[in-house]
Amino acid sequence: MTRWTASDIPPQHGRSAVVTGTGGLGFEDALALARAGGDVIIAGRDPQKGSAAVNRIRRAVPQARISFEPLDLADLASIAQCAVRLGKTRDSLDLLINNAGVMVPPKRQETKDGFELQLGTNYLGHFALTAHLLPLLHKGSNARVVSLSSVAAASGAINFDDLNAKRSYKPMPVYSQSKIACLMFAFELERRSKAGAWGITSIAAHPGIARTDLLHNAPGRWSAHGIARSILPFLFQPASQGALPTLFAATSPDAQGGAYYGPDKMGETRGFPALAKVPPNALDEAVAARLWQVSEALTAVRFEPDARENMRTFTN
């Protein structure tokens, strides 16, 4: 795995992928997969940003098979509708990269379904999306789901007593909770896929500290986080570099199911893909199983690889 780069991605011809997020890491994931010959769908909330991302990739890769699909991860109805559209246009899916997210809005906000915004977007939205796309992934070839965590997960814990931070909202601890939830989901999905013979490999990754607009978009350009991002760019590695652990997890034949990948240098903040240190809290299988059950109840989805069962969920 020494100094693995996007040039090491195996040919992706004949493989289909959905990547959530139209900018930053998601854009870099989609660009690299398109360069490797994949059939890539960028899924995001803003059609203008989605169209711009598709056009940028087509300029860089004229032969790219790239398209945009509307998806609002803060709206369970939008997630279900996205899955229905994908189910009507394709018979299978080989790769899902759960990448998009929001980070540390200074004041508590909610999704359309009443979830705290960071938990609802970063974790619950992707949980529901994966459930809805499970029938397509089940029919995929060597299908993989890659879920994005963060170095912030190291300080994260699941607070079942105030999961949606209604009683106490502190931006960074709530963000950390959402990201350790993503990590625990990746591990639990791998365990359940193996137990149920779903044929889907689940892997987690994190980008280290990457130069994206995440810190500008949520807390704002003039927040402490946003200012650091603007005037101290040398602290952040390029988004293309930050995308490498995700791309390794998504494409490398050496990537292992149930593993966690991140950068290999400076406390996993930058570098090339390597196995990441798993926070002890993420290894608690009892908590992961409880979180899964709670998440199914909150999102009203179930993980059933039988398409007929899921179509009932889509249309309810």
Structure in words:
The protein is of the alpha/beta class and 316 residues long. It has one domain: Rossmann fold (3-Layer(aba) Sandwich), CATH 3.40.50.720. The protein contains 11 helices and 10 strands. It has helices at residues 24-35, 47-60, 76-89, 117-138, 171-196, 214-217, 224-231, 239-242, 244-251, 285-299, 307-315, and strands spanning 16-20, 39-44, 65-70, 95-98, 143-148, 200-205, 210-211, 237-238, 260-265, 270-275. The strands form 2 sheets. The chain has an 8-stranded mixed sheet, with helices on both faces. The protein has a two-stranded parallel sheet with strand order 7-8. Strand 4 (95-98), helix 4 (117-138) and strand 5 (143-148) form a beta-alpha-beta unit. Helix 3 crosses helix 11 (307-315), helix 4 runs parallel beside helix 5 and helix 4 packs across helix 10. The longest helix is centred in the middle third of the chain and has 26 residues, at 171-196. It is globular. The chain starts with 15 loop residues before the first strand and ends with a helix. Residues 220-232 and 308-316 have low confidence and may be disordered.
